[in-house]
Fold these 3 entries.
Entry 1:
Amino acid sequence: MIELIDVKKSFDDNPVLKGVSATMESGKTNLIIGTSGSGKTVLMKCMIGLFHIDSGAIKYHGEDLFSLPDNDLKKFREKIGMLFQGTALFDSMTVEQNVMFPLNMFTNQSYRERKKRVNLVLDRVNLKNVNNKLPSEISGGMKKRVGIARAIVLNPKYLFCDEPNSGLDPQTSMVIDRLIHEITTEYDINTVINT
């Protein structure tokens, strides 16, 4: 469970978050809905510790995110998967290398173990035979699914999706929505979506 308690955040005396409170439960898809420029992405970046809040609290299962020592914060971030609005895939890396990137950063697994995990999550998002393709060689919907595969490759407890349907046609958007919902319930992940 994630608890937001009177979260406030300003930039140069310009208040963006003016006392946000919410509870987000595991195994559910939690939505942050708002107009463009309303602070949705700022809130999400605060929730994953990229931005420090001015006041209030963000708690994960009762533990305050911003009271964690740096080492514990780094370990905590290993439990977070992030699907960025523009997918944020590395253009010069293959699909396989993109998905393997978090495994390279956070695990000591052998190449064989990492490759097996990559293939498992690519299969889970219905992508086969694309391991050696570059992002420029696949469609927008496929890029989103690669982004989802990369976000779940470490078995996160929390999945954050920043406008996952941005730039997609309605049919592909429904596929992505269904996939995120299935992964959320299947793995009992606490999913937060900006939309």
Entry 2:
Amino acid sequence: MPVEIIVPRLGWSMEEGAFVAWLKQEGERVRAGEPLLSIEGDKAIQEIESIDSGILRIAANGPKPGDTIRVGDVLGHLVSADESAPAPVQARSTKPGTPSPSVEAPPAPEVGPILAPVPVPPARSSLSVPTISPRALRVAAELGVDWTTVAGTGRTGRIRERDIRGASGSKATARASVAPMAPGEKSVVLVTGGCGFIGTWVVRELLGRGLGVVVLDGTSRPTRWQRVIGNGSDPIPLVQGSLLDRELLARVFAEHRVTHVIHLAALLTPACQADPWEGCRVNVLGSVALFEQARALGSRLQGFSYASSVAVFGDEPDHATGAGPSESLPPTFYGAFKKSLELIAAQYWRHFRIASVGVRPQVAYGPEREVGLTAGPSLAARAAARGEAYCIRYTGHVGYDYVEDVARALVRGSLETPPGALVVDLPGERADVDEVIAAIAAAAPGMASKLTVDGPLIPEHAPPVPCCISTLYPDWATTSLAEGIRRTVSFYQNRSL
């Protein structure tokens, strides 16, 4: 029998909303789970999915874009091939600003029988920054208006398109316009966290490709840039600040004419465990702020990649007892925050079509890795190059990714971003710590007796179903552990000459 398409309640206080558009055509076959129409509620435009299948029959007297619709309104039906929609379909709608019909609406369930809302969370906290409609946000980007300074005239102070257009001539609210990329214009990649270990090698890879680079980091210009990049690091623009400074972030995008993003800025496991609140602010809210700025960039944004981690997975299975991973739940706050970043990226693709590539390295090693428990192999290679003894303070069998591979993956993810919100695993090379010691000894003959291993078993956090980067880039080549260790030892040997 025909199934009614009913306007769902998108929030506890919602009684009516604005019809935006049908996402399927009259007579088109619809599958359960596919986006069917979009509605603007109190907070944002939301796509509504169908939770049943059938052929779409739109009510002849149904709403037009911009019309007001009430919770419980019947907008159409889903029918089988041999059915027709009941006639007439009583779809109640009104033009904006006109009274609603006096017909009493039927009681509306929180989620209608056919439609399930796909929620779009408020982009900004109403406690500190006003909310803005998606259309107004796009217009603000086009006109170069800093919308955070605009007074909204919508419900609960929400900023609407007419507010942005009214403010577009004010010098107090105008900022540099973000124009689409011009033909022949040089790409500029924003690297957040570019002063860190991986960030330094990412910047080096970008400069080697002849691309423009701007770095946003909370620290000053690092000496490792000179050691890894050389004199080419001198002209690199470094903006010191936080992703949570939204005004600064908007200014960086506009003044440096950013076209691509590589997002590395994050607090690591110890800091997140010691202060989960600050870890969440930096790793989660900072990432949302960056995605929001990328969203405001519109068509000028050409690609977006970010560093995730195998820490999003639970501990590896216990092969001795047969026990499996703990539902693949992250065992640390850091892992939970990285998993949140993957989910946030998926939402920005789903609702705003911002494509991204997340890269999950395993143990990243190489020259200039100095911090963290898994810095042991890199520090052991440095010690061997200097003829010094060193003890790696963990044991176990994990995957190792050479830092140049990690940098190359992030750069390709940003420059060659396919549609979707993809997350890929780096294959690395799985090895026991004793094999790492052997590789270092092979690169630095005579040092085997000075290198030791002692410490707890390190969890592997292997992905249950790996999605290797080669599925995205079939020509991907992995640097072997022996070669990566050789390059690391050679780097430090050359510096000691």
Entry 3:
Amino acid sequence: MPADRLLVLLRHGQSEWNLKNLFTGWRDVDLTPAGIEEAKEAGRRLKAHGLAFDLAFTSALIRAQHTLDLTLAEMGLTGLPEQRDQALNERNYGDLVGLNKDDARKKWGEKQVHLWRRSYDVQPPGGESLKDTVARALPYYCQNILPAVLGGKRVLVAAHGNSLRALVMVLDRLTPDAVAALEIATGVPLVYRLNADSTVASKEILTA
């Protein structure tokens, strides 16, 4: 139904490098057993709430793609049309990729690492800030995802903590200061229903 205008955002389940507390960025690592269960549980919650989808979007990285596949399988929606694009990839952490976050704090200090991780426009060495991530994720959302939702397609987006923070920043109209405190949990669906003018009519977080 066009009036539904359903958009669900889902951060991938726990990855192998999440578990090891490593900066992951664009490194292509898969889910842990716990992450696999998180993705399945997301599918069960969505199904229990009577939700279904017509179209899915995901990143170019396996942890998001695997999460999408597991979630849809749990809902009985295997084979749903999907689009993959690196515009939805996690932010690129540059020289930090592969480093343990605790080791990075010891090397550069708690304050500097916090700035790299949580600020809006401070780039880690050789990497992207959240502002840079917004600059690639938002145009993709406006050109591909939003028209599908406004056209009546029920859309699921399986992506990453920072690419989804970029979208939530726009949907929830958060300031750069406010988005610094925004955390998006792994495997927890964010259910949006949009108005015809693309603003948010309602938002629900499907926690356990």
